[in-house]
Every structure is written in C-alpha cells, then in structure tokens.
Design goal:
Multidrug efflux transporter AcrB transmembrane fold; about 20% strand; Alpha-Beta Plaits; about 1000 residues; Acrflvin-R; 9-stranded antiparallel β-sheet; Multidrug efflux pump subunit AcrB; transmembrane helix; 31 strands; elongated; single chain; alpha+beta; 6-stranded antiparallel β-sheet
C-alpha cells in the first residue's frame, strides 16, 4: 500500500499510542462492568391488543356489529401485517400485528394511530358497548416473580401486606412496573330471596335505588364566613358491609332492616378472576419488570436485598416464595459464556504459541484483550447488553479477530528473517496487506448484513450478532495496524539465522500436493465442482428448524378444557395437577395460573390471554435430566386424567414465540364449511405418527337457554325485553349498584338472588317479574324456554373466520419434516376446495419461512456490498469471478458437518452459512493479492500462484484452525451449536479449497506453463 502508512505513523508516536492503549483498556474494563446483563436481547413485540365489551350480545351480534366494525377500521393501520381476533358473546379481542419491517419508532407511532382512528369511530359502535380498550404493553417481561401464601390470614389481610410490599419494591432502582397476580377483587353481596321480597311487598328496583341514593358522593355546599371557609358533609356513606346491612326500608307500613330482607356478606368476584397458585396453594403474586436498558443482575441483587428487609417484618404465617428469577438464570448464562470465552481465548493462544512461538504468540495474546477493550465501550454506546446473542457473537468474533493480528505478526517475522530492521518489518504488513485485510474485513462484515437488516422479528432478535461481529472485526483491523506493530517492535527479535526458514513437513506436503493439483488442474476443478454439486443435492437430507428449545429447566403445562367450561372446572383440574406434582423428586417448584396463561416471565414466551377454560402451569425441574423425565410423566398423566381436554407439555422456546409447533389455518366465509375442512385437515395431520395431541383453537358449540318472550303478552303486562333482561341479570349474575370506599380499594356492592335460586334452571320458570301495582307474575306466563347452540368463541384472521388445526411433535422430529411429509395430501385437499376457502401452514414452519425469506431479501444487498468491496480491491473482473467462485465452496463442509453431527439447519445456522461467504472471501482476496504481488516481481502465473499460496499457507491455516477450534466451547450448546458446526465444517473445507482450488483456477484462467523446477522454493517464508 503506497502513500500514508498508519503503522509507521504509530511507530513514530509510540508514547501517544501507548497512552491510547491504556485508555482503551481502562474504558473497556469500565464498560464491561457497566454493560447491562439480560437473558435475551430486547426485541419489539409488534402486537397490540384491542378489546371491547358489549354486555348481553350474542356471538353473532358481537362479531357482525362490533368485531367487524373495529377490524374494518384497523385494516387501514400503517405497517399492518395481519389482524387476528376472537369473538365471544359480548366480548371481542383483536390482535393488531405489524410487519417485521416496522422499527421501534414506527411501532410507537402506529399504536398512537390505532388509538386515534378507533376513537374516531367510537360513536358508530352499538349502544351499550364498553371500550374499546388498548394494550400496547403486551411485550413487557416480568423477569422476577414472587408469590405469597398465608396460613391463618384472610385473603384481604394477605393482599394488604402484598400491596404494601409492592409499594416498597417500586422504589427499588431499575424496577419499571409491578403487577399483582391472583389478588381477586372484593365484593359485598346483597343476596335476597325472590319469594321473601314478594311476600313483604318490597320492590327490588326501589331497594336498589335507595342503596345508590344513600351512598352517593355529592357536594353539600360551602359556607363562606368572614374568616374561614367551611365545607358541609352529609353522612350516609357506606364504610363497611355492616353499614349496608343496617339500612332501614319502609315496607307494608313498617320499617325493616336490609339484613331482615337479604344476606349481606363480603366475598370475592363471582365467577372468580384468574387465580394464582404456588406449589398447590392459593397465593398472590408480584411480577416485577425491569426498565429498558437495566441490568437484570443488579436488579436481582437489589430486589433480593429489599425482600430480605421486608421479609424480616412479615408476620409468621405469610410466606414469600421466589417463583421466577431471571437474574439467577442470566448470572448462570453469563458465567457459562464467559467460561466459553476464556476457553476460546485459551485455545487460540495455544494455537498461536505452538505455531508461531512464544514471542509472536504473546502479540496475539495481547491483541485479543486490546480488541475486546475497544469493543465493550462501543457496545455501551450502542446500548447492546451482555445477553445470549451478543455473548455468542463475541465468541464467534474472537475466532475471527485474531486473523489480522496473525497476518501482521507473520509478515513482520518474515521481514525480520530477511534482515529488515524492526521498524521496517513492523510497517511492512501495512504496505503489502493492509488494504487486502481491510477489504477482507469489510467482506466478512458484509456476510453478516442479512443478520442485521432483515425485516423480521427473528432477525431483530439476532441483530446484536451482526453489530458485535462488525464492531469486533473493525476494531481488530485497527489493533492489527496500530497496536500490533508497536508490540512487534517491543517483543519480536530478529532470528539468529538470516534468510528463509527451513520449510516444515506439513508445508512440504502441502506444496507437493498443490503442485500435483495444478498439474491435474481439470481434475482438481472438476472434482471440486462435483463435491459442490453433491453437497447441494444432500441439503434436503439435513433437518430444518427455526429455533431450538431452551436449555432452561422449566416446563410449560397447558390445559384447555372445553371452551364453555367455567373457571371452577379449571380450578378443579389445576388441583388435580397440583396433587400429581406434589412430592415428585424431579420437581423443584411450580406455579399455576388458572383462567389465564403465565405472565411473560421470559421474553420469547407465547402469552395466553385470560380465558376461564385455560390453565397453565410453570413447572421448574431440578435439572435438565429431571426435565426430560418429568416431561414424559406429565404427558402420560394429562392423557390419562384429562382425555377430553387439550393439553401440552413443552420446554421454553428460543427466538420469537410461535405457540404450537405444527399449525394449519383453515379459513373461509362459511363457519360450518370451515369446520368440515378443518376436520379433514386434522385427519391428515393425525395420520402422521410424529404428530401428537391434534386439536383446534375453536370447534365445538356450547348450549344456551333461549327465552322467547311473547311480546304482545309482555306489553299487556307493561313489560319490555329490557326490563326482563335487567331483572334476569340482577337475579342470576348480580348487578353492581354502588361501591364501598374501603381504604385504597373500591368494593362493588352486588345485588343478586340467593345461590339456590341463581343456579337452578328450573327456578327460571317461576321467577317473579314485577309489574305495575306492586304485583308480580311468573316468567313462564309470557315466555317459553328452549335450548340452542352457539360457538363460545370464533377466531378470525383479516376479517375471515379462521380455524387453526394444531399439534405437538414427537421428540427429535422437527415440524418442517412433518409438513414436508404431509405436503402431497394437503395439496390434494386444497385442489378440491372452493376459491373462498384456504388452508395455510402456520406455526413454526411459517415463521421460519418468513424469517428466512426476510433474510434472503437482504442477500442481494450483501452481495452488492461484497462485490463492490472486492472490485475496489481487485479491480479486475476475472479476479472477482475467482473469489466469487470460491466463496460458495464452504457449503461442502457445512453439509458434511451438519450431517455427521446430526444438527439441524436452523435460522441461526443459516446466518452462519451466509457469514461464511465473507470469511472465505477474505482469505481469497488476500491470496489473490499475494499472487499479484508475486507476479509484479516478474514471476509467471504458475510460479506466482505456487509461491503466493505457499507464503500464505501458514497465516491462512492458522486463522482457520484458530477459528475452528475457537468454536469448540459453543459447539455443544443448544442455541449456537448448529451455527458453530456449520462454520467449523465450512471454514475448514473452504480454507483447504482456497489454498488448492483457487491457485489451480488462477493458473487455468491465466495460463502459463509449469517451470522446469516447479517444486523449488523461490519465495520467502
């Protein structure tokens, strides 16, 4: 490289460079301890939940008049990917899902747009609709969850204590929000007997009006005197249930207390709100979320210290339990990755010391911490935490960042051996290799472009892989050209024997093999092409995968009863599950969420919304072996004990949440036709031996009692449908009539009939309806009763009824494998469907395909950047084509490594394959540059190719071996294993081919005859 020499500049300002090295180390150490720690990288949950309530509406009315209106408006949402909704009688819930290309700012702006546009049409919604309400905090992660159980304390006393603890924990640094789980809202019930009220001549309407009138909060005026202002307050407000029981009413000419007419008692919302249980005991939970950019390890320490102080003041009988602690998980993960990082450093140093010697190895040993010292402050500036992806990226980058330092050190050693001074030798690498190294570095970074810029949730999840690798590689280049020459001058000494060192045995074998390969150039080129073709044909043999399961010890147990089941049935099922888990030696502890899914204690968790029929348990096994044993036991138990329920047992997943691994969506305008097609799809899915627990997200209708009112008769009696519905709702479900202001709580006062009169269908016929004149008539006098059916809920996708067929997958079988096996049967079914009906693959397979498609969409950008950098460096189309022809050859090693190891080709492995293109191209660029340098000395193409390949043999092989061996610590891991094997196999094979295939191709392209003494060594090494 002519012109300015950065290495010479550094050597001429040694004190300044040493100062910069010290500053870099200090900044790196400080930044390392200040970097946030987390389990997974933060990624945006691009989903908002919109829900609204229309009390009394049927499922059909709710879908047509409420869901449809909202969805029509929501389809105009910017960046919309798809809408998904479920409709229940009187309730609609809509999931607004944005495209992966929407960045965090787009998402925030879009949620504002949703609120605004829905607000604009609120007046067009049916009368009586409550809402709509919006939840755009759907992605909040509550990494620390405490549960509190009590012995000898009332539920209210326990909640008071938990509320006080919540207030204290909110003051802990890094705590963003805290949610209560399973607290339950208190209610004061006023339960009356219909017959008793009728006998006493008490009008329910008048009774309710009196309760409301006495407890109302209204100003009574203010007296202004010459010296002060005095507010007037009227008594009568309810402070307790006893105040309500003591109210007097005039009936039949006498005064009666409410306690003489009805039972007044304090209880909890009926039916209950979602419940929370710990190790089989009812509990109240506190779920703690960390602020953005916080350190989960610091949060864990602070919360633990605060809980220690709080627990010391708790009365005996209230017991806190740590249900989920992400800080412990992250601490363990960071510790394991740091161990892997140190192991990788040790492996690379062993390779360096053994191959280069002690002094050159010392330069490599110092280059690693210097590079990391530059990386950590940049990570801090870019707000990249220490988490699963960034830590893995550091290990991957570590194996790559020694490349430039090795090249610089090797070139310095060569020039010292030839008699150059230390300064001349240390600056030689910059003159000859700096541009090629920089081009190779940029090409390697370009290989990670699809990781950083693909528009999908999966790519956002893995973005820090691109960022950290790019930072590390750029930092390594600067360290190699600024710090390494200075270290070389200080550490390296000229060899005692001047001139080229005697070639070793491995080198002699390589040179003889290379010459033989060039002599048989067409056999070499043809054999390489055949190997590449075979690897392409063998690709389908590698199992496909999206993201693997986590190696955490938790198991998720999902239990869905029939969709018309009550929460009482779900609670009974949860107790049976608790009984099974109690005393199991493989269980450390467990928590159960009745009527809802687990709170998002883990970012990639697929969160289930509240539904009375659903129960989810989080079972923490003692270790991974115990998790495997427990998995089988739980599956057998659920199959035996709950044969009519939909159940699944699964470990936590990695990557964006997708729910059931195998899914097919059946959609169409006719609900009955959709059901029939879904049953046929289920038959195909169930025929595959690997598919388990085939089920539907909705299917069976439930029954209802339809009260058909004779409107003419009702009008003669002075009754309307509104009056009848109001009376029925008051008697059966209860009507909130006022509120008791109890400390920090608002307790609803609910008027309803007694239990025996509410739960009996037979009592409906004799229900007394009030009419004019203080008289009553039975409901059966003007109404008939009949059973009917309707769907308890209906799912829709983009405004079309959609029924999803779901299934679990047998162990060691991937969803992609099952889908591929069923493809022919599904295609045959689709050809017979009307145009308005569709069957689409969903679940893991769909998400994987979408993510891969988003990556492939960015590949042209990656290739453009690569080609531009290569052309700028090579400035020759033939040389560019040579590099491009070598880059894909890594696929030979990738396929072989994955087939031999049995690892799947997952999303992360595909990213590794793309990154390989850059790594291989870097070696090819430097080798081509060396060949051209040899030719500039007057050598023929044959001799230049042989001599250049021989001179680059040691640094290229050292880099490849260091990279491959440096991957060993992460190769056994669940997440990084497939990528590690792909890179190890691909780089090892591609490096060998680069050193053999590329010089052979060069000679074949540019011609040239074999010299008389082809085996001679006319180069410096």
């Amino acid at each position: 490289m002519s012109g300015f020499n950065l290495s010479e500049w550094a050597l001429g300002r040694r004190s300044l460079v040493v100062y910069l090295m010290l500053i870099a180390v200090a900044a790196g150490v400080l930044s390392y301890f200040r970097l946030g720690r987390n389990e997974d990288p933060a990624f945006t949950i691009r989903t908002m939940v919109v829900h609204a309530v229309w009390p009394g509406a049927t499922a059909d009315e709710t879908m047509k008049q409420l869901t449809e209106r909202l969805e029509r408006q929501l389809q105009e949402t910017p960046h919309l990917d798809f809408l998904r909704s479920f409709t229940r009688p009187g309730l609609t819930t809509i999931f607004v899902n944005l495209k992966g290309s929407a960045n965090a700012r787009d998402v925030s702006d879009t949620w504002y747009h949703v609120r605004k546009t829905i607000g604009d049409i609120r007046h067009t919604l049916p009368a009586g609709v409550v809402g709509p309400f919006f939840d755009d905090d759907f992605g909040d992660t509550f990494g620390i969850v405490y549960g509190f159980t009590s012995d000898g304390f009332a539920q209210r006393e326990l909640r008071d204590r938990v509320e006080a603890i919540r207030s204290q924990l909110l003051a802990v640094p890094d705590v963003a929000k805290i949610e209560l789980l399973g607290a339950g809202e208190e209610v004061i019930f006023v339960e009356f007997s219909k017959q008793e009220l009728a006998n006493l001549g008490v009008d329910r309407t008048a009774l309710i009006a009196a309760l409301r009138a006495q407890n109302i909060v209204m100003p009574a005026g203010t007296i202004q005197t010459g010296t002060e202002r005095i507010s007037l307050r009227v008594s009568g407000s309810f402070l307790s249930e006893q105040d309500i029981a003591d109210i007097n009413f005039a009936a039949g000419g006498r005064m009666l207390r409410l306690s003489d007419l009805a039972m007044v008692r304090r209880g909890y919302v009926d039916p209950p709100q979602p419940l929370f249980r710990i190790n089989g005991r009812p509990a109240i939970g506190l779920a703690i979320a960390m602020r953005d950019g916080g350190d989960i390890l610091a949060l864990g320490r602070n919360v633990k210290a605060a809980m220690a102080r709080i627990t010391a003041d708790l009365p005996i009988g209230i017991e806190p339990s740590l249900v989920a602690d992400q800080a412990v998980v992250v601490g363990k993960a960071v510790g394991e990755f740091m161990t892997s990082l140190l192991q990788a450093i040790a492996i690379i140093l062993v390779v360096s010391f053994s191959s280069l010697g002690v002094r050159p190895g010392l330069i490599i040993a110092l280059a690693i911490p210097l590079t990391l010292a530059v990386v950590f402050p940049v990570m801090a500036v870019l707000q990249i935490d220490m988490q699963r992806i960034s830590l893995g990226a550091l290990i991957i980058a570590l194996a790559l960042l020694v490349d430039d330092a090795m090249t610089t050190t090797d070139a310095t050693l060569v020039r010292l051996a030839l008699g150059d001074s230390k300064v001349e030798a240390a600056s030689y690498a910059f003159r000859t290799h700096a541009l090629a190294m920089l081009a190779g570095t940029l090409v390697t970074i370009a290989g990670f472009i699809p990781v950083g810029f693909a528009a999908s949730a999966a790519s956002e999840y893995t973005f820090s892989l691109f960022a950290v690798v790019a930072i590390a590689l750029l930092a390594s280049w600067f360290v190699a050209v600024i710090f390494a020459p200075l270290l070389g001058v200080a550490v390296l000494v000229p060899p005692k024997q001047k001139g080229a060192a005697a070639p070793g045995r491995v080198f002699r074998l390589y040179r003889r093999f290379l010459i033989s390969a060039i002599r048989a150039k067409w056999v070499t080129l043809g054999g390489t092409a055949a190997l590449f073709a075979a690897s392409v044909l063998a690709l389908p043999l590698i199992p496909q995968q999206f993201f693997p399961s986590s190696d955490r010890p938790e198991l998720l147990v999902d239990l869905s009863l029939p969709q018309n089941a009550s929460i009482f049935a779900s609670e009974t099922a949860a107790k049976r599950l608790d009984k099974m888990l109690t005393g199991d030696p493989d269980v450390a502890h467990w928590s159960t969420y009745v009527g809802r899914g687990a709170i998002r204690f883990y970012l990639p968790l697929s969160v289930e919304l509240p539904n009375d029929f659903f129960t989810q348990a989080v079972v923490v096994a003692r270790d991974i072996g115990a998790r495997v044993r427990l998995h089988g036991k739980l599956e057998r138990f659920l199959a035996d004990e709950f044969p009519n329920a939909i159940s699944s047992v699964s470990p936590l997943g990695l990557g964006p949440p997708v729910g059931w691994p195998l899914q097919y969506r059946v959609s169409g305008p006719d609900v009955e036709r959709v059901r029939d097609i879904a049953l046929e799809v289920a038959r195909i899915v169930g025929a595959d031996p690997a598919a388990k627990s085939v089920n539907f997200d909705w299917m069976e209708p439930d029954r209802q009692v339809r009260i058909r009112v004779n409107q003419d008769e009702a009008r003669l009696l002075g009754l309307s449908s509104q009056t009848i519905s109001t009376v029925l709702n008051t008697v059966i479900s209860g009507t909130p009539v006022t509120q008791v202001r109890d400390d920090i709580y608002l307790v609803d006062v609910v008027v309803r009939a007694t239990d025996e009169q509410r739960v009996s269908l037979a009592s409906l016929r004799t229900l007394q309806m009030p009419i004019a004149g203080g008289r009553t008539v039975p409901l059966s006098q003007f109404a008939s009763f009949e059973y009917d059916q309707e769907f308890p809920l209906i799912w829709r996708r983009d405004r079309v009824p959609t029924l999803t067929v779901r299934a679990a997958i047998a162990d060691r079988v991937l969803p992609e494998t099952v889908v591929n096996r069923q493809a022919a049967a599904m295609a045959k079914l689709k050809t017979a469907l009307p145009a308005s009906n569709r069957v689409v693959v969903g679940g893991t397979v769909e998400e994987s395909r979408n993510s891969q498609a988003s990556v492939m969409a960015v590949v042209p950008v990656m290739l453009f950047v690569m080609f531009t950098v290569l052309m700028a460096q090579l400035q020759s189309f033939p040389r560019l084509l040579m590099v491009v022809s070598v880059a894909p050859l890594g696929l030979i090693g990738v396929v072989a490594a994955l087939l031999l190891s049995g690892r799947p080709l997952g999303f992360v492995a595909i990213l590794g394959v793309l990154a390989l293109l850059g790594m291989i191209s870097k070696n090819a660029v430097i080798l081509i540059g060396q060949i051209e340098a040899e030719r500039s000395l007057g050598k023929a193409p044959w001799q230049a190719a042989v001599d250049a390949s021989s001179s680059r043999f040691r640094p290229i092989m050292l880099t490849a071996v260091s990279t491959v061996l440096g991957m060993i610590p992460i190769a056994p891991t669940v997440f990084w294993g497939p990528m590690a094997f792909a890179i190890m196999g691909g780089l090892l094979v591609a490096t060998g081919l680069t050193l053999v295939f590329l010089p052979t191709l060069y000679v074949a392209w540019f011609g040239g005859k074999e010299p008389a003494d082809a085996s001679g060594s006319s180069f410096a090494a």
